[in-house]
Amino acid sequence: MIETISKISYIHYNPVEIISGIDLISSHLCKLVPVEGQLLLVTTAGFTKRGITEKIIKELGESRVLVYDEVVSNPELDGLDLATARFNGNKICYIIGVGGGSVIDTAKVLAMTLCSDLSRPLHQILRHKQTVNSNISLPVVAIPTTSGTGAEVTPFATIWDNSTHEKHSLIGLNIYPRHALLDPELTLSLPIRDTLYTALDAVSHALESLWNKNRTTISEAYAIQSLMLANETLPALLKDLKNIELRRKMQQSSMLAGLAISYTKTAIAHSISYPLTSHFNVPHGLACGFTLPGLIERYMLNLQDGIEKQVIMSTYTILQELKLKQEISKFIKCNESLDYINDMFHPDRANNYVDDISKEDVVTLLKQSI
Known about the structure:
Blueprint: E1 17-20, H1 24-27, H2 29-32, E2 38-42, H3 45-49, H4 52-60, E3 65-68, H5 77-87, E4 92-99, H6 101-113, H7 121-127, E5 140-144, E6 156-161, E7 166-171, E8 179-182, H8 192-210, H9 217-237, H10 244-264, H11 268-280, H12 284-289, H13 292-300, H14 307-321, H15 324-328, H16 334-338, H17 347-350, H18 359-369
Parallel strand pairs: 1-8, 2-3, 2-4, 4-5, 5-8
Antiparallel strand pairs: 6-7
Helix pairs in contact: 5-6, 8-9, 8-10, 9-10, 9-14, 13-14
């Protein structure tokens, strides 16, 4: 007789088809979307100026492609509701997001809100806690142009409410993109600071999925491989921004870290970061990354010898060499950050941290890191 397993350790699921290569907009995009029907391209004004929007329209057909190229960093709730209202009358069947994490998050949000009957879906759902059936969404092709968020493979979309300085997340299986196209050529134009800050986000994702209560053997494998790639790649990439192979490896590192947090979610470093981005416009990757050396020192106290310890020690050395104290001091002073200690314990993230951490511990960490 086969004994029934009464308790499941974990269930791993990721439905995103990942395609990696060069010039994928020309070779693969048209194969992924339906041959008929209205398409919505979500991107930034910068990519329109650089000709990417025109290239996609040429590939898919001018009459089929609607363009929303007004995405800015940290997509804001009211702006997303306005974008939803603008395109609500169109029978859109697929969304294509080309850009960094903010663009892909916007594409994922619109994929859900354009299926809603609510007049102001985010306002009603997130501010007024209106209950809706949110299991329906449009399919998304995510084409990342930065190597950091891993948003192309995660079931999360971040939304910022500037009126309350709150950060919200849409979470669910319907938030996953249908396809992810990883083309390192699209990351070649990223300047050095954006390259660094987005890479710090990827490193943070990998580390935070390791010091995480939800960690599994699968997330661990993704995270360690992500860190190994970042350790090998990031220092060299910052000296050679046009190196396509280094760009490819950093893009793979970001994607692997995204696969890791898709299950575990992030933890305390991200929780600390949110008020710093909301109140002081600290770039997300830097806001997550500047506390990592101090958190590594804390985590390593009880970590046994092995591959994980070796990899994290290499990451620690690289982070120290990046002089993150100097980077964060361009945006905020330590005493300013201490005013927001209470906001740094976002329960959806802080509670994932594998160890108990108090407000006094975070005060010490901030004083050490800024």
